[in-house]
Amino acid sequence: MALTTRRRALTTLGAALAGSIAVPSYATAGESRRHRPRPLWRAHAHNDYEHPRPLFDALDHRFGSVEADIFLVGGQLLVAHDPVDLDPRRTLESLYLKPLAARVKANHGWVYRGQRRPLQLLIDIKTEGASTYLELDRQLLRYRNLFTTYEHGRMYPGAVTAVISGDRAARVPMEAQTVRRAFYDGRLADLGSAAPASFIPLISDNWTLNFTWQGVGAFPAAERAKLHDIVRRAHDRWQRVRFWATPDLAGAARDAVWGELLAAGVDHLNTDDLAGLEAFLDARHRQ
Predict the structure, then answer these.
(1) What predicted TM-score, i.e. pTM, was given to this entire model?
(2) Hey, how many other C-beta atoms are within 10 angstroms of the C-beta on 181?
(3) What span, in angstroms and rounded, lies between the C-alpha atoms of 85 and 77?
(4) Tell me: the pLDDT tens digits for 187-223?
(5) What is the DSSP letter of 94?
(6) Phi first, then psi: what are they for 179, rounded to 5°?
(7) How many CB atoms lie within 10 A of CB 72?
(8) How distant, in Å, are the alpha carbons of 12, 188, 205 from that of 193?
(9) Which of 81, 114, 215, 219 fits 256 for a cystine, CB–CB 3.0-4.6 Å?
(10) Strand pairing partners for 13?
């Protein structure tokens, strides 16, 4: 299939699975389309909850994907990076689920007003995966109208697409479900596996475990070819690609890596620097 045809087809699935390959966007009026900056669907807010205003800072910078780490503690899903940071007031529901539901209601069904495309909520499980996921599933059920849903082989797009990362034990109960309000974050080992994009829409992996280049000097030709091959193989199966642990200090090295990721068609650029990635993508007119 020609590249342009492949990318058009990918956008169709992306509308349901929060894909970040360019998808047509629709505003409520022509005037709004001309003056409202479009979301940056490739921008992923790593450790989003560590910003002063979790979720809202990322949305103010027009990010299309945010990440929350969760711990199951006493039946509550608490958001933090490390156990020492746990605070019973900082729950997944209070920081993400309730605010997203309120925003979607205010914006007539979507996270970004006039943009008929779901926000990706990447949920990284830090405690035992199976039990944590089952509690998460119960909480997502309370917000069933908010989330993209897989039901008996069919996809029903929602304003938010939840993708589950972290502890791998979550996979077993997820695969057993015929109705899910969440999807699974695969690894490079899942490329070419039997698992379809309706279960694994996203392939994520550690940049430093797969590439030696950190943005200084020329990108080795063999590594560039490897990166492009990973993206091609994922896109051939309607899956998106994200790498974490890429350079994230402002400067030429980070820009060089981000530039190669864009050139290869990587779907999500990972950062803690919201303003930095926003400026980078805007300068290149990339969404």
Answers:
(1) 0.89
(2) 24
(3) 13
(4) 999 999 999 999 999 999 999 999 999 999 999 999 9
(5) I
(6) -130, 125
(7) 19
(8) 22, 10, 16
(9) 215
(10) none
